[in-house]
Amino acid sequence: MATIPQHIAIVMDGNGRWATRRYLPRVAGHKRGVDALRNCVRHCGDIGVKVLTVFAFSSENWNRPPEEVSGLMELFALALGREVPQLQAEGVRIHFVGDRSTLSEKMRAGLEQAEKATAGNTRLVFNICFNYGGRWDIAQAAAKLAQAGAPITEMNLDRAMALAHVPDPDLLIRTGGEQRISNFLLWQSAYTELYFTDKLWPEFDAAAIDEAIADYALRERRFGRTSEQIAPEAPVKKAA
Ligand code: FPP
To answer: Which pLDDT score is estimated for 170?
Structure first.
């Protein structure tokens, strides 16, 4: 298998279209999305990915039709109850990343419980971005520093970010055909390799993950340096 990225981030787009094409309600697409996510977590653990971060619900998703928002909330609650024991058995540590201040007491308790139950696991860190936005993260980190009277430096901001517990993503995948970041991991994706695919999220299976990783393995990550600095050519031997 090709070079495995340590940290993969995913924008799971296309659930709605997957359902609409089958004359199903959009929430049916989200349900299939949960199935795809379960398989994705398992596969990432199996191939040695260390961190998986997914965009489950953005700060802007509250503006969707009320029946879709309530359907998604029900699905999250159901999936949490059902999946956590299995994730626990598979050595997955769950973190929720996002603004919890506007969530209901019940929802907050559910998130905390899932985090607590899996806190001892080390095989795969699974960050679920929920009520999350990249701009929110940068603003909350700056506010934390301002409140502490700490200087606003790159290093301090980095440490105050909601994803400070993991390295930046190596690979960011977006399914569903759109080629944009949509307010996901704005700070953390400065040097992340981007991979866009037309596949809709419910169809994104283990083979599709492997394909994305194979594409990633061909990239040259320069982090602002030159090609020569990354792989200096072997010095030419002078003839004796
Ligand atoms: C985007 O597809 C998908 C979402 C807004 C929700 C993603 C959520 C899941 C896959 C469930 C995750 C569950 C847990 C427990 C973390 P879309 O609706 O924008 O699709 P469209 O672009 O085709 O309309």
So the answer is: 98
